[in-house]
Amino acid sequence: MGEPAPDRLPDRSRSDHSPWNWLLLVPIVLPLIPTFFNTSSPTVLGFPRFYWQQLAYIAVGVCTTTLVYRMTRRR
Which long-range contacts (CB under 8 A, 24 or more apart) does 22-27 make? Predict the structure, then answer.
């Protein structure tokens, strides 16, 4: 029979404890606040606020994810 695989220790050089990761909570919490979208005005191109604001939340999520990635990646 073969030898058992040696226990692999986790890589201690990698750390995901950057304070930039807290910024990822913004696109999660922002759409959960009902006072931001509980109205139909103003309209943009005939779309009520709820619909165009959902697209804005996507843009906020992409921007914050990109920012956190760029600030936490290794050089």
Answer: 23/64, 23/67, 23/68, 24/64, 24/65, 24/68, 26/60, 26/64, 27/57, 27/60, 27/61, 27/64, 27/65
- The pTM for the full model equals 0.70
The model's confidence at residue 70, banded by pLDDT at 50, 70 and 90, is very high
Single out the residue of 23, 56, 24, 62 nearest to residue 37, CA to CA.
Answer: 56
Question: Tokens 């804005």, residue?
Answer: 56
Half-sphere exposure of 51 (CA within 13 A, CB side): 6
- Using an 8 Å Cβ cutoff, are 49 and 39 in contact? yes
Q: Domain-by-domain residue ranges, the chain?
A: 19-72
| DSSP 8-state class, residue 3 | P
